[in-house]
Amino acid sequence: MTTPQPIVIPGDYTSATIATLLPPATYRRNLAWVTDISPPGFMFSDGSTWKVAAANTILNGAGAPSSGTGNNGDYYLNNSTTALYGPKTSGAWGSFVNLVGSAGIAATIAVGTVTALAAGATPTVVNAGTSSAATFNFGIPTSAALSNATPLVDANTGSAGTSTSSARADHVHPLPTIVNLASVTTATDGTYTWTYPVAYAAGKVPNIQAICQATSGTTDVLNVQVDGVPTNTQCKFRVTRTSQTVVSLLGLTILSVPGTIGAQNLFLRAEA
I want to staple 200 with a disulfide (CB 3.0 to 4.6 A). Which of 98, 161, 219, 232 is the partner? Predict the structure, then answer.
């Protein structure tokens, strides 16, 4: 037996007059367009009354659905508990399915043993615990001996290493070259103690250069000397001054040391 197909009745109707104009029993299994429902759409006659011909949907709200909520075939989501009801059957919602499960157990990770493997072996990682409480045991290959390796050595302070490790524990890195520069003025007695802006390694004495700038027009001879023993942090200088006097009658040049040297300008350089 073939089920009769719905027929769409021409025209526009309202929910208040459709039952009078189109008796449900006469127009059983027919559709009519109704304009005053929201949104406007078709109503369906089941033989006793006209009903909105709505498609099934998923409803939602706070709390469980009442028996009057929704139509057969609909689903309902309880926003408070994430419980999903449906499909609604014969006017009843029935049981529900909780969409959110119970909280899982927090996982932990710990390091177990670390074992040295032979040089060139493949590293290993083994979980000796469980999936939720992992304990990892590591196997790490040792480095091959480098008996012919040449360690890095600083010529002034270091000495060759003897370890055969791939990175020798007793190697010494070369020290970088440090250049210090300064333009200074001595005390009136011609002395000046220069503390290097950047100190050198302990026991290292830099190569030092000093130039004394004579006053314009002077004929005196100025000499710069290192006073004492330089260290890795400072050096003391002393300027001596010799005056020249020419005796015209005799054609002689007489040298003398003045009582006061006076403040002198020095240009200093240290490098190591």
Answer: 232
Sequence ranges of the domains in the chain: 7-52, 108-141, 144-174, 179-271
How many whole angstroms separate alpha carbon 272 and alpha carbon 262?
31
Question: How many C-beta neighbours within 10 Å does residue 241 have?
Answer: 19
Rg of the chain in Å (alpha carbons): 52
pTM of the model: 0.36
CATH 3.20.20 for domain 179-271? no
φ/ψ (deg, to 5) at 208? -120, 135
DSSP-assigned beta bridge partners for residue 78: 61, 83
Task: Enter the tokens of residue 111.
Answer: 């390091």
Q: What pLDDT digit, counting tens, does each position of 20-69 carry?
A: 899 988 988 888 888 988 778 888 888 889 887 666 778 899 999 998 88
Rounded to a whole number, what is the distance in angstroms from the first to the last CA of the chain?
Answer: 110
